[in-house]
């Protein structure tokens, strides 16, 4: 009986040693994509801050972010100035109520937005970044960054448990654009994405 018990213990130990390394072999990219694959939609209040390369605060805003796979997005900035960035079947829209103007862009523009990573499984999009990190904190460095002060250098994503808690964009000129999220939920209705434009809105169609 002792030999059988010892044999079983040894077998369990060997299997454990074999399995533990396998569990840790998931790359940061795979780990991050697994986290993002756990939800089909996301809704959260956000506080946005923009700082320069010295860390001086340049701008601060608050609003609501809504995302839904595969390519549905609404960024409703409420303070200090109200604006809407949202998708429709025929393009990406930016509406400024203050000047009563909506700018329409090709929906492909969304593919260059870091927000697209949160709702896209497109391999070509993920291949643009070298991904590092673990335990809910990830850095995505652009493999071939564009030139210009407004070009993205890298971005970071941080999770609190299973919920996305922050996203920061680090630009080539040292500017950092950070979003901190609160009240995160994955429950969204289709009508939550609807933005009603006034009939007299000025349209700038850039498609």
Describe the structure.
The chain has 207 residues and is of the alpha+beta class. It has a single domain (28-198), classed as Lipoprotein localisation LolA/LolB/LppX (outer membrane lipoprotein receptor (LolB), chain A), CATH 2.50.20. The protein is built from 4 helices and 12 strands. Strands 7-8-9-10-11-1-2-3-4-5-6-12 form a 12-stranded mixed sheet. Strand 7 (129-134) and strand 8 (137-142) form a beta hairpin. The longest helix is centred in the first third of the chain and has 22 residues, at 2-23. The protein is globular.
Features:
about 210 residues, alpha+beta, outer membrane lipoprotein receptor (LolB), chain A, twelve-stranded mixed β-sheet, 4 helices, about 20% helix, globular
Provide a concise account of the structure shown.
This protein has 207 residues and is of the alpha+beta class.
């Amino acid at each position: 009986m002792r030999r059988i018990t010892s044999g079983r213990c040894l077998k369990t130990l060997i299997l454990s040693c074999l399995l533990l390394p396998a569990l840790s072999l998931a790359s940061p990219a795979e780990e991050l994509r697994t986290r993002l694959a756990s939800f089909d939609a996301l809704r959260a209040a956000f506080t946005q801050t923009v700082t320069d390369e010295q860390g001086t605060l340049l701008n601060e805003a608050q609003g609501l972010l809504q995302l839904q796979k595969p390519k549905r997005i609404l960024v409703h900035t409420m303070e200090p100035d109200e604006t809407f960035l949202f998708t429709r079947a025929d393009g990406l829209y930016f509406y400024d109520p203050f000047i009563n103007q909506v700018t329409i862009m090709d929906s492909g523009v969304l593919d260059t937005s870091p927000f697209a990573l949160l709702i896209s499984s497109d391999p070509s999009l993920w291949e643009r970044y070298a991904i590092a990190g673990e335990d809910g904190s990830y850095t995505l460095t652009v493999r071939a960054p564009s030139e210009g002060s407004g070009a993205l250098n890298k971005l970071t994503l941080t999770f609190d448990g299973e919920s996305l808690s922050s996203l920061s964009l680090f630009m080539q000129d040292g500017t950092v654009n950070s979003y901190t999220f609160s009240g995160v939920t994955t429950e969204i209705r289709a009508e939550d994405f609807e933005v009603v434009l006034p009939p007299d809105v000025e349209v700038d169609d850039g498609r």
